[in-house]
Design goal:
The chain is α+β, with helices and mostly antiparallel strands. It is built from four helices and 18 strands. It has helices at 21-53, 57-81, 315-333, 339-371; strands at 115-120, 126-132, 135-144, 148-155, 158-167, 172-178, 181-189, 195-201, 204-212, 218-224, 227-235, 241-247, 250-258, 264-270, 273-281, 287-293, 296-302, 313-314. The protein has an 18-stranded mixed beta sheet. It is elongated and about 125 Å long. The chain crosses the membrane at residues 35-55, 61-82. It holds the Pfam family MORN. InterPro entries: MORN (IPR003409).
Length: 384
C-alpha cells in the first residue's frame, strides 16, 4: 500500500496481503491453545481426582497449587532449552516495509518551499532570500511596500541574528535581533538626526547606551525600556551638564548640575527640579544652601540654629545631601561604555546585510530561470 499526498501519515505502515491474514490468525490461535492444554493438564488431573475421592477443600488447595506451579515451570524450561524449530511460540510475522518517495512531495509543495526563492505578498511586500518549509529562514531581504526594508538573518519568519532596517522616512537600525525584535547591541539613527548606540531588550533601548541628539546634546548612561533611568551623564546644547540619578527619563534623586556660567547645584532633585536639601554655589565663591522646593530656596540653613527652631535647616543635613549627590555623580561619570561592543555588533550587521543581499540576488536569478512563476501569499509580516 503506497501512501498518497492526501494521506501522508500512512507513509511507513506495513502492508499485509489480505488473503493470508485469516490463515495467520488461525495458526496463532492453534499454537496458543496447545500451550494452555499442556500447562493445565496436571492441574486438571488433580481436579478430577478430588471429585472422584471426595478430597476436602483444604487438602485440594494444598495439592493443586504445587502441581500448577510445577507444570508451569516445566513448560518454561521446555521453551527455553528446546531448539527454535521445536518451540511452541511462533515468531511474530514480518512484513516488508514499503517506502514511497512520492509521500515526501506533500511536504515540498510549492507553498512549502525550501531553498532560495522570491515570495511576493498580496499587499505589495516582497521577500527575497532563503526559505525553509515556506518560512523566511537564513539570510534574506524583506521589502515593505512603500515604507522600507530589512536585510539580515531570519529564523521562523522573524528577524533573528544580525540585520539592518532601513525606512523611507530616514530612520535606520543596524545590530542584533531576537524573535523579531531589536535585542542585544545595535545602533539606531532616527529620522530626526538623533543617534542611539547601545544595548537593546525586546525592541527598546535597555541597559547602557549613548544617545546623541541632533541639536548637540548627549546622554551617556543607563536606560530602561526606552527611557533614561538609573545613573547617567547629560550634556546640554548650551554647555550645562548633569551627572547623577535619573528616573523615568527625568533628573530625579541625587545629582550634580553644572551651569555654563559657573554655578553648580549639588543635592536632591525631583522631576527635573531642585527639590529637597541641597547647595547652590556661585562663580564668585558665595553659596546658598537649605531646603529647596520647585527649584527655589525655601528655607535657608543655619550653622547654629536654636533648639527646636523651624525657620532654619541644620547645615549638617545639607552637607550629607551634597555628599550623596557627589557620590551619584562620580558613579555616573564612571559608568561603563559600550562603544567596543556596539562597533562589533554594527560590523556583524553589515556582514549579515551583504550576505542577505547576495541571497536575494541569487533567488531572483533562480526563480526567473527555473520557475518563471510567482507565488502570492496573503499573510505579510507585521511591521515591528
Amino acid at each position: 500500500m503506497t501512501p498518497t499526498a492526501g494521506n501522508p501519515r500512512r507513509r511507513f505502515l506495513p502492508s499485509v496481503p489480505p488473503t493470508r491474514a485469516p490463515f495467520a490468525a488461525l495458526r496463532f490461535l492453534r499454537l496458543r491453545f496447545r500451550l494452555l492444554i499442556l500447562l493445565f493438564f496436571p492441574s486438571l488431573y488433580v481436579l478430577l481426582l478430588s471429585a472422584t475421592y471426595s478430597i476436602d477443600r483444604n487438602s485440594f488447595l494444598i495439592d493443586f497449587l504445587p502441581v500448577l506451579a510445577f507444570s508451569s515451570g516445566l513448560v518454561l524450561l521446555l521453551f527455553l532449552f528446546l531448539p527454535s524449530s521445536f518451540r511452541v511460540l511462533p515468531r511474530p510475522p514480518t512484513f516488508p516495509l514499503l517506502l514511497s518517495i512520492r509521500a515526501f512531495s506533500f511536504w515540498n509543495r510549492t507553498d512549502r518551499r525550501t531553498g532560495l526563492a522570491v515570495q511576493p505578498y498580496s499587499n505589495g511586500d516582497v521577500y527575497e532570500g532563503e526559505l525553509r518549509w515556506g518560512k523566511c529562514y537564513g539570510s534574506g531581504v524583506y521589502y515593505y511596500h512603500k515604507s522600507g526594508k530589512y536585510e539580515g538573518d531570519w529564523i521562523d519568519a522573524k528577524y533573528d541574528g544580525h540585520g539592518v532596517e532601513t525606512w523611507t522616512k530616514g530612520s535606520k537600525y543596524k545590530g542584533q535581533y531576537k524573535k523579531g525584535l531589536r535585542h542585544g547591541f545595535g545602533v539606531y539613527r532616527y529620522h530626526t538626526g538623533d543617534l542611539y548606540a547601545g544595548e537593546w531588550l525586546n525592541g527598546q533601548s535597555h541597559g547602557y547606551g549613548v544617545h546623541t541628539c541632533e541639536n548637540g546634546s548627549r546622554y551617556v548612561g543607563e536606560f530602561k525600556w526606552g527611557l533614561k533611568h538609573g545613573l547617567g551623564y547629560f550634556r546640554f546644547r548650551n554647555g550645562d551638564t548633569y551627572a547623577g540619578e535619573y528616573f523615568a527619563d527625568k533628573m530625579h534623586g541625587f545629582g550634580v548640575y553644572h551651569f555654563a556660567d559657573g554655578q553648580c547645584y549639588e543635592g536632591a532633585w525631583q522631576e527635573e527640579k531642585r527639590e529637597g536639601l541641597g547647595m547652590l554655589s556661585f562663580a564668585s565663591g558665595e553659596s546658598q544652601s537649605g531646603h529647596w522646593a520647585s527649584g527655589v530656596l525655601e528655607i535657608s540653613t543655619s550653622r547654629n540654629p536654636f533648639a527646636g527652631a523651624s525657620f532654619a535647616v541644620n547645615h549638617t543635613r545639607v552637607l550629607n545631601s551634597v555628599q550623596d549627590a557627589r557620590t551619584a555623580a562620580q558613579k555616573a561619570y564612571d559608568v561603563r561604555r559600550v562603544d567596543d561592543k556596539v562597533n562589533k555588533a554594527v560590523a556583524a550587521a553589515n556582514i549579515a546585510a551583504d550576505a542577505a543581499a547576495a541571497a536575494g540576488s541569487k533567488a531572483v536569478q533562480i526563480e526567473k530561470r527555473d520557475r518563471g512563476i510567482e507565488y502570492v501569499h496573503d499573510l505579510p509580516l507585521e511591521i515591528v
